[in-house]
Amino acid sequence: MDNKIINFAESKIVEEILETAQVMSDRGWAERNAGNISCILSEEEAAEYFESAGVKRSFDLDLNISGLSGKTLVITATGTYFRKLKKDPAVGLGVVRVAEDGNSIDLLWGFEGDNKPSSEMRMHFTGHIARLKADSSHRVILHTHATHLIIMSTAELDENAFTSALWRMHSECLVVFPDGIGLIPWMVPGTVDIGNATAEKFSEFRLVVWPLHGVIAAGGSIDEAMGLIEAAEKTAEIYIKSQGLPGVARIVTDAQLLKIAEFFEVEPRKGIIEEV
Ligand code: 2HA
Ligand code: ZN
Questions:
Q1: What is the reported pLDDT for 275?
Q2: What's the sign of the alpha-carbon dihedral 186, 201, 257, 175?
Q3: pTM score, whole prediction
Q4: Of the ligands numbered here, which is closest to the C-alpha atom of 214?
Q5: How far is the CA of 12 from the centre of ligand 2 (A)?
Q6: What is the model's pLDDT at position 276?
Q7: Relative to the alpha carbon of 81, which ligand is closest?
Q8: Distance between CA atoms of residues 237 and 92, nearest Å
Q9: Cα–Cα distance between 130 and 178 in angstroms, integer?
Q10: CA distance 102 to 60
């Protein structure tokens, strides 16, 4: 086998994925096989590790992803326990290249033991296509079962109210996600439909909550996408734990949000802060 292909297990991107999966597990967001991660390799990375790689297996898709034609992605395998991922990355991760016609993917590395891509691969693929249209530096999609965001999704909050609640509960949320948080209706996981609904939200948002399930984040790097989840999840915890405290509720006001936006030069999503 080509040495370069062997080296992929030692690459920085694999190291980052393994570390992130471990953190998700340590925080209690990755029970059983919960969560999935994918990252588009840069052209340089794809050439460095997989220029001469042969096709090990191919997977036909039940959706067309020609928006990713020729791109090389690393994605977690279905059924993977995140706490075990680092034991054998070539089992729990796979590198796939999208066929020119967008109807199938070719496996170049990993998924050893006849493993297959994540059950949420449809969302990952359609999500990447949507985010690349919005942001040419986009590369990463993370899905995890972040506990407090799921608890918050049990409340009857619409998308703007969800975003507003978090912006007002911590002075830095507006800076981290000025574009807000998208919220889809409840849907069956793993389906083309949930993938399309998420992708639609990704044209405006980098964070999308799946009610009674989890959260999806997109970014130019793992740190960026994970940082979005960490900020939203921590603030959801503060929101939930502060409900019912005695006295007058203290929140970041409209005027204070506007001061934050001005100082940090961010453009808040419209329709949430009242222009005072
Ligand atoms: O990969 O989290 O949504 C398991 C899941 C499916
Ligand atoms: Zn899930």
A1: 77
A2: positive
A3: 0.96
A4: 2
A5: 25
A6: 59
A7: 1
A8: 30
A9: 19
A10: 9
Q: In whole numbers, what is the pLDDT of the chain averaged over residues? A: 96
DSSP for 10-51 reads: GSHHHHHHHHHHHHHHHTT---TT--EEEEEPPHHHHHHHHT
- Measured between alpha carbons, how far is residue 111 from residues 45, 78, 182, 239, 249 in Å? 19, 9, 32, 40, 51
CA nearest 11: which of 62, 49, 61? Answer: 49
CB-based contact 232:147 (threshold 8 Å): no
**Which alpha helices (DSSP H) does 27-120 contain, by range?**
43-50, 89-92
| Model confidence at 261: pLDDT above 70 | yes
Residue 246, pLDDT > 90, answer no
Task: Find out whether the beta carbon of 80 lies less than 6 Å from any atom of ligand 1.
Answer: no
Residue whose tokens read 């297990």:
9
Instruction: State how far the Cα of 13 lies from the Cα of 70, in Å rounded to an integer.
Output: 19
HSE-CB at 79 with a 13 A cutoff on CA atoms is 6
Paired strand residues for 94: 75, 110
